[in-house]
Amino acid sequence: MAHDHHHHSHGHDCHAHTSDPHALDRKLAGAAWLNGIIVIVEIIGGVLSGSVALLSDALHNLSDVLALVMAWAARILGRRPATARHTFGLRRLEVVAAFVNALTILAAAAFIIKEAVERLLHPTPIGSGIMLAVAVVGLVANLASVLLLGGHRHDDLNVRGAFLHLVLDTVSSVAVVAAALLANTKIGPWLDPIVSLLVVAFVLRGSWDLLGRSLRVLLEAAPPDLDLATVQSDLATVAPACRLEHLHAWELTPGQTVLTADVVSTTTSAPTLCADLENLRHRLAEKWGVAHATLQPVASTASAGACPIA
């Protein structure tokens, strides 16, 4: 079969930004710094007070920091143009960072679970004063971060994800404050590790999802919401003279789908072929959310002698 390497169909995604994208960049960076400081404070407070609930909240805040940094990086890298060496740009770095971060958080979570189980088996007194002071500071910082990003939570998926992380961590901070207030009661020595396990459970859920999503992208698997057989059937109704073969789809980053395919055509008219390719590209972008489609026309055996691409 003959190929024409000049007939490709490409679609490009567009990114919605606020009127001043750098303002949101600064807010994301500010929220990341604020939560980073809280992570350090809670680790120190957890060690001094003996509270694993504080350590677990520090881990949860660390996951917030990573979410904020990834949202910030995605915006910065997304605005950088592609180069001759990095033809799709550098947005895949966001996925690599997410994969490493998820593994790091899972390892830290395993350590906190071990400590919490030991505390349940062998309860020990907790420095409630230090724990309460640090927990309240963490709660205030989380509330401040939520307010800082609240007006931008619908700007893009990464920012929304970071915002939801902060909301969840605010809820966990309330639980840690409650545990600190009850630290000197009879249930205090058991409540602290129980709260830490609950917080870690939230962290594990998000981290496991992050690990799976990033690994799926790095392995170039087809997006979970894109059934290629269904796509082929749908495109057959758009251009009946064309049949897609060797269909491949993957994600550069979550939500940015790339697709390549051979388009076997029976048409003998170059204008008709070009129109079919454009209709296919438009359908892939509008209905299936494909950000970049490369469609390679291939002559069918029946029309190879007269086809304009033969």
* Rg measurement, Å: 26 Å
- Record the strand order, biggest sheet: 1-2-3
In the CATH hierarchy, what is the class of the largest domain?
A: Mainly Alpha
| Total domain units | 2
Helix % is 55-70%
The overall average pLDDT, rounded, is: 81
CATH superfamily of the largest domain, by name, is Cation efflux protein transmembrane domain
Largest sheet properties: 3 strands, mixed
What does this entry look like structurally?
- The chain is mostly helical and 310 residues long.
- The protein has helices spanning 21-49, 52-78, 92-121, 128-149, 157-181, 188-218, 228-238, 270-286; strands at residues 242-253, 256-265, 290-299.
- It has two domains: 21-218, Cation efflux protein transmembrane domain (Alpha-lytic protease prodomain-like, Up-down Bundle); 228-303, 2-Layer Sandwich (GMP Synthetase, Chain A, domain 3).
- It is 62% helix and 10% strand.
- It has a three-stranded mixed sheet with strand order 1-2-3.
- Strand 2, helix 8 (270-286) and strand 3 form a beta-alpha-beta unit.
